[in-house]
Amino acid sequence: MFKNIKVYAFVGPSGTGKSYRAQMVAGEKDVHFIIDDGLLINDNEVIAGESAKKAATKIETVKKALFLHEEERKVIQNAIKKYKVNSILILGTSDGMVEKIAENLGLPKVEETIYIKQVATDEEMETARKIRVTEGKHVIPVPTFEIKKDFSGYLLDPLQIFKSKGKGEKPYISEKSIIRPTFSYLGNFTISDSVFRQIAEYQANRMPEIHKVIKSRVQNYGEGVLIYIEVSVIYGYNIQTTLKQFRDKITKEIENLTSMNVIKLDVVAKNILVLDKEE
């Protein structure tokens, strides 16, 4: 399908720090596109795909990483066409895995393979393995805000990296996102329902069209939250416009402040308050 794309491979056992070093390796090869665990990444931005690390089981993780599902393959292939990719770095745990990913996506054969041992010491790889096993943490080579929706409820923390590649060399600066996959037995963080109401009330206080929040209900579905809010609005304003603006502001604040994905947010006007002329 794709004939004029140069394909690089970055290979190493699971948990040895491939994703951590992916941007550095790509930069050294002047490659701007990376395929890592189901995602297509352009520099520091996720442009297509759904991360395999979000899968509910390890078997499904493998399927997603290899693009065995046709609909997932097409999403990546369409993005490769759209962005006119001329070179790409594929991450994998073995030569065979990378070759399979390239084959499934219709990419040419791998021209050059970089192995984790070429860019990381045994000590660094062992440290990465310990973190993977004991804490269940994974790294994705993009900034935190790029994966908020993709990892709803499982985001742990951003990791900023400033590493010198040697005397006289340009330092490598990047921000990674550390996450815990859904199948980890170590659990995930939770956020009290009252937090969502407090965010809604805060936004209501900032909008003259909204009198107050009357009721709120939150349902957590693991991959995100469904929120229902009832409000009292001030007479004289366009209700539909007011509710839409209120909904958009709350959604943005919740995703920015909590990293949770808002699957759906319904805002209903239950009361209309008519103010006295003096008020």
Fold blueprint:
Blueprint: E1 6-11, H1 18-28, E2 33-36, E3 39-42, E4 45-49, H2 58-66, H3 70-82, E5 87-92, H4 95-104, E6 112-115, H5 116-119, H6 122-135, E7 138-140, E8 155-163, E9 172-179, H7 193-205, E10 210-220, E11 225-234, H8 239-258, E12 262-273
Parallel strand pairs: 1-5, 1-6, 2-5, 11-12
Antiparallel strand pairs: 2-3, 3-4, 7-9, 8-9, 10-11
Helix pairs in contact: 7-8
Structure explained in plain terms:
It is a single chain. The chain is α/β, with parallel strands linked by helices. The chain has 2 domains: 6-179, no CATH class; 193-273, Alpha-Beta Plaits, CATH 3.30.70.1350. Helix content is 34%, strand content 29%. The protein contains 8 helices and 12 strands. The strands form 3 sheets. The protein has a 6-stranded mixed beta sheet with strand order 4-3-2-5-1-6, sandwiched between helices. It has a 3-stranded antiparallel beta sheet with strand order 7-9-8, with helices on one face. A hairpin with a 4-residue loop joins β10 (210-220) and β11. α7 crosses α8 (239-258).
Name the descriptors.
279 residues; elongated; 34% helix; alpha/beta; 8 helices; 29% strand; 2 domains; Alpha-Beta Plaits; three-stranded antiparallel sheet
Tally of individual domains: 2
Principal-axes geometry comes out as elongated
Number of helices: 8
| Low-pLDDT windows of residues | 160-167, 182-189
